[in-house]
Design a protein that fits this description.
single chain, alpha/beta, six-stranded parallel beta sheet, 10 helices, 19 strands, binds zinc ion, Quinone Oxidoreductase, Chain A, domain 1
Length: 350
């Protein structure tokens, strides 16, 4: 089968590799259909590392994906404890926790220290024609959701978890720094959750247009303004209840702290390329900010599927570019260069 493997920074090669073995108990074999390209994949692609994880050997990227069940192991129950059947289309939650450590047992499987994650070194991801996955991580897709939006349920899951952590209250004011797919989905969820004002910031106008269409009260280009000044002006000097950082830039955490109100919440979901958090201590301290780091998600797929099926979140509007598996290197290069109009890139595998 065809596999796209990352051999080192910006070095993706397609090769013919052996098929996966028959699925073990609790596993299914998936015929992979689509894979989304994520900002975290770009870090790995450009530098061969993300945070303190360094890819010391070639491996396969791809953690946002969906596929069709091609073979079923014994006791292959999906994420809602239903038996999986051959031919079913499923989206896959990429993190596989141990389910028996202190964190898992106390309701935080997203923080399990013993987990593995499809598409994060050393675990191979979905840029290949077939792979075995944990059945429990599979969530069947309704017919109304296309193959193309399946991978975006992972992105939406990350956004849902972030908004959960923000404890957003109805009528609250929110700012979202960064309008990539995660930032845009957070913006949309904040609107749906009843925020009274939602500020969106980004450096790409085409993304700000989506924020605007999805209900942001204000959408500003960070190259044309000082985001903190804008928020302070438009909130009468008060600041927002919740500031969410979903960008990668050096200043975005600081800006988010500056635009939060006294006693406000700062939620960080962006991953900086230099692995450093830059924040002036006194700004956060004097306001008594609650700072929360968002890590992955907790059983958010059923809610994500509901939101997408009902049309309240239009995942298809995020898909800007499509490539075949054989064009994986080109897809990554286009995304890394931020070609005009680029938002979510989808790779079509099968
Ligand atoms: Zn991702
Ligand atoms: Zn665990």
């Amino acid at each position: 089968m065809q596999v796209a493997r990352l051999h080192g920074p910006t070095d993706i090669r397609i090769a013919d590799e052996p098929e996966p073995p028959p699925p073990a108990p609790g596993e299914v074999t998936l015929q992979i259909k689509t894979v989304g390209l994520c900002g975290s994949d770009l870090h790995m692609y450009e530098t061969g590392r993300i945070g303190y994880t360094v890819a010391s050997q070639p491996f396969v990227l791809g953690h946002e994906f969906m596929g069709e069940v091609a073979a079923v192991g014994e006791e292959a129950l999906d994420g809602e404890h239903q038996p999986l059947r051959i031919g079913q289309r499923v989206a896959v939650e990429p993190a596989v926790p141990c389910w028996r450590c202190e964190l898992c047992e106390s309701g935080h499987p997203n923080l399990c220290p013993h987990h593995y994650f499809y598409g994060l070194f050393p675990e191979d991801g979905a840029l290949r024609e077939r792979m075995n996955v944990s059945a429990r991580n599979c969530f069947p897709l309704p017919d109304s959701l296309s193959d193309e939006v399946g991978p975006l349920l992972e992105t939406l899951g990350v956004a849902i978890h972030t908004v959960d952590l923000s404890k957003l209250r109805i009528g609250a004011t929110v700012s979202v720094l960064g309008a990539g797919p995660v930032g845009l989905l957070i913006t949309r969820l904040a609107v749906l959750a009843g925020a009274s004002q939602v500020f969106a910031f980004d450096k790409f106008d085409w993304r700000l247009r989506v924020a605007d269409a999805w209900g942001a009260t204000y959408a500003y280009n960070v190259d044309d303004c000082d985001p903190a000044d804008v928020v302070m002006d438009l909130t009468g000097g008060r600041g927002v209840d919740v500031a969410i950082e979903a960008a990668w830039s050096d200043h975005s955490v600081q800006q988010a702290a500056e635009m939060a109100r006294y006693g406000g919440r700062l939620v960080l979901v962006g991953i900086p390329p230099d692995d450093k958090l830059q924040l002036q201590h006194s700004v956060a301290r004097r306001k008594g900010l609650t700072i929360i780091m968002s890590r992955r998600m907790k059983h958010t797929y059923p809610r994500a599927i509901q939101l997408a099926t009902s049309g309240r979140v239009k995942l298809e509007e995020l898909v800007s570019h499509r490539f075949d598996l054989s064009q994986t290197a080109q897809a990554y290069a286009s995304n890394a260069a931020y070609e005009r109009g680029i938002n979510k890139v989808i790779l079509r595998v099968g």
